[in-house]
């Protein structure tokens, strides 16, 4: 209503709303498939070497539904 305070300070305190939005984005990401091309030789956080020019593809929609990552109740 007219007296509602939708300031950043108040909205940022809505912890359950924040958790809800993150959960929705986990199950229904805005980008289903994404990719990048390595410009230089690089190394992924797990130690995997990525040569310059390699294309890296990943699927946030699959990652968000992975039982390996999220457990048996991933959905």
Low-confidence runs of at least 5 consecutive residues = none
Oligomer: single chain
- The best one-word shape is elongated
Mean pLDDT: 93
Helix content: 25-40%
Radius of gyration: 18 Å
Query: Based on helices, strands and strand pairing, what is the structural class?
Result: alpha+beta
Element pattern in H and E = HHEEEEHH
Order of strands across the widest beta sheet?
1-4
Largest sheet: 2 strands, antiparallel
How much of the polypeptide forms β-strand, as a percent range? Answer: 15-25%
How many DSSP-defined strands?
4
Kindly report how far apart the N and C termini lie.
Answer: 36 Å
Total helix count? Answer: 4
Strand-helix topology:
Blueprint: H1 8-11, H2 15-27, E1 34-37, E2 42-43, E3 49-50, E4 55-58, H3 60-63, H4 67-70
Antiparallel strand pairs: 1-4, 2-3
Report what the structure shows.
This protein has helices at residues 8-11, 15-27, 60-63, 67-70; strands spanning 34-37, 42-43, 49-50, 55-58. It is elongated. The model has no long low-confidence stretch (mean pLDDT 93). Strand 2 and strand 3 form a beta hairpin. It is 33% helix and 16% strand. The strands form two sheets. Strands 1-4 form a two-stranded antiparallel sheet. The two termini are 36 Å apart. With 75 residues, the protein is of the alpha+beta class.
